[in-house]
Amino acid sequence: MDAEILAVGTELLMGQIANTNAQYISQRLNDIGINVYYHSVVGDNPVRLKSALELALKRSDVVIMTGGLGPTQDDLTKETVSEIMGKKLVLHDESLKRIENYFKRLNRPLTKNNIKQAYLPEDCLVIKNDNGTAPGCIIEKENKIVVMLPGPPSEMRPMLDDTVIPYFKSKSQEKIVSKYLRIFGIGESLLEEKLMHLIEKQDNVTIATYAKEGEVTIRITNKSNDEAVALRELAHVEEEIAKVVGDALYSDEDKELYQIVGEMLINKGITIAFAESCTGGLISSVITDIPGISAVFDRAVVSYSNKSKVENLGVKQETLDKFGAVSRETAVEMAEGIRKVAGTDLGLSVTGIAGPGGGTEFKPVGLVYIALASKNGTACKELRLAGNRRKIRNYTVLNAFDMIRRWLMNESNN
Amino acid sequence: MDAEILAVGTELLMGQIANTNAQYISQRLNDIGINVYYHSVVGDNPVRLKSALELALKRSDVVIMTGGLGPTQDDLTKETVSEIMGKKLVLHDESLKRIENYFKRLNRPLTKNNIKQAYLPEDCLVIKNDNGTAPGCIIEKENKIVVMLPGPPSEMRPMLDDTVIPYFKSKSQEKIVSKYLRIFGIGESLLEEKLMHLIEKQDNVTIATYAKEGEVTIRITNKSNDEAVALRELAHVEEEIAKVVGDALYSDEDKELYQIVGEMLINKGITIAFAESCTGGLISSVITDIPGISAVFDRAVVSYSNKSKVENLGVKQETLDKFGAVSRETAVEMAEGIRKVAGTDLGLSVTGIAGPGGGTEFKPVGLVYIALASKNGTACKELRLAGNRRKIRNYTVLNAFDMIRRWLMNESNN
């Protein structure tokens, strides 16, 4: 089955937002073996919308549409699809009830416009929306399938994941299973080289690598008529890859590095505190994205000034004078200092030059020290990073989390 | 002139990246009065690329293409465009020299594939690429214009801004000028209501509002044969809008709120420190995105635990016991505490419940206190925010920066 993603919305053509829905839907469809050959975007214009949809139905088996399901006169997706597919719009009682309840909860009056949202093409499969008012739907006709989903990603994503993807899975005899392996610490080219023997002999299981800033994701996919067989083969390939990449593999569930670290800390009950300089609170802000992290995260000090390094972290003035704020010695004292004042199991510190100014011949922009203090002593890592300020800061954050992850792994091995 | 943006790249259809190029190009074209009616994406497939380009040339005057200019066999944009436009590919000496120099600088050998990148359609206008190897080009034929740009945004953006936009501007008699006014603290509906008299009477100058999370941007655009006239009319409308929105208008240069605050602090030489709880270091990480902020930013304490609030900020244990960590009283002591320990002009604190857990009947998720301590005393603001953890944290950050901005504005008025 070949698919096309057709987004409707003038805000996309004005450049107010990027079409991240197309990215998300493409990933999910590719995961289950549906090829995406086209993305298209048209505005809230009935003539152009109609011709774009006609074209999509001519060249693709499946058309996934996003947007244009809102309550206003501009929102024309349902009307246009119904016209082209020869369906009437009829009131869907259950959707009307959901919309009425939605407004009741918000304590806001229901308007006529919102009732329009409960009208759906006859004989369609309704997709309920738990995060907004516009229901979605799936229409089948003459070997073509049109799916309509609302534009806001927070509404669209759960509807896709919970209803649309299972719908397509159930239509196919073939079972397609995918897994994302996340790797930190090996570049994409080197990784491909290391995996070449697996990539070359791939038969059922396909292996693809994708580089993301500072990280690589490996997607492995398998199809079979028997899901258990597909999963078994996938597990075998995952094992082979794990042998090659070793502990650079940090997740086989497509999780972010910071999530893995947060979960490890919480599960092991190991407490932590941060002392950040060049990252300016990024490490702390990222880990506090995790609900419930307060069980193990005590505090962070963003010691931008030397005065703060001395006062908050107990870094010695003579260390700063002799070695400078960006030095192995200062990083170590910062890590030990935050561990001591916070009374946590771990203390992690970062000091570096994120640029664009502040670099010298001996301490260039991109020089970063990360130190991790624990009951076993203090380890310090020197990084020499390339790129602009944003890249250097982000790459430092990844390295910091990876250092914690590796400590936690070794700890549990002891 | 009506335009279409056609991106070429299988990585877009696989969902590896979002088509942010289309967003960027759409903004820039709209700024100079070129309507964008379609975005399309096709993979590195010659047949589909050809038919997508033929369609684009049929329905649009201008086709801006991104991607497919790389050195590999997959990269087919130039070949396909040349075929359809009836042009030969010829070696462009200057581009070859640029590519040779690029590899010399990197100390890497030049391959045959890279020489392919110096071949361009005859009679085209070459767009030089200062950040990569693939030159771009503009081809005109029979009232149609095709622009080819490389896919990586860091290469594409400067080529668009420095060559393509001036090229289109020079083609038009009419001068189009735009300005973005950034507003914080008035919702989009209310803002439209307040501006209705201006929106309704708009003649030359068009006014459009765009909502972004927690903020609104107003774009004002004007066209005239005389740029000075266009600018004068624009300035007049800006004044009218400013009268209506007052000091909710924080930038007329499309800058972010935190940038405005950072610049104000640096220009006035006013020092600051943060005490963050529910935002977990976000405020600090955002402001340290600004190079040179160390002149005024001293430190931040992310006091996630109550212990840290007492130890680092001098919050009284009895305040925590009596009023709780999320309270006006604690926020005030945190702000005064961080101002005192850091010895800065300003101390800003945040404490709140970001959710999803931790809410109670009297202190629900979304309850946030922001306090700002200065020589004039301490102000505290209570917020009741809706949305998920991410939204609550981001909205708190915006409110915090706005509170600082308003203090700095009043200060300079005294």
From TrEMBL, chains A, B:
<protein>
    <recommendedName>
        <fullName>Putative competence-damage inducible protein</fullName>
    </recommendedName>
</protein>
<dbReference type="InterPro" id="IPR036653">
    <property type="entry name" value="CinA-like_C"/>
</dbReference>
<dbReference type="Pfam" id="PF18146">
    <property type="entry name" value="CinA_KH"/>
</dbReference>
<comment type="similarity">
    <text>Belongs to the CinA family.</text>
</comment>
<dbReference type="InterPro" id="IPR036425">
    <property type="entry name" value="MoaB/Mog-like_dom_sf"/>
</dbReference>
<feature type="domain" description="MoaB/Mog">
    <location>
        <begin position="4"/>
        <end position="171"/>
    </location>
</feature>
<dbReference type="InterPro" id="IPR050101">
    <property type="entry name" value="CinA"/>
</dbReference>
<dbReference type="InterPro" id="IPR041424">
    <property type="entry name" value="CinA_KH"/>
</dbReference>
<dbReference type="Pfam" id="PF02464">
    <property type="entry name" value="CinA"/>
</dbReference>
<dbReference type="InterPro" id="IPR001453">
    <property type="entry name" value="MoaB/Mog_dom"/>
</dbReference>
<dbReference type="InterPro" id="IPR008135">
    <property type="entry name" value="Competence-induced_CinA"/>
</dbReference>
<dbReference type="Pfam" id="PF00994">
    <property type="entry name" value="MoCF_biosynth"/>
</dbReference>
<dbReference type="InterPro" id="IPR008136">
    <property type="entry name" value="CinA_C"/>
</dbReference>
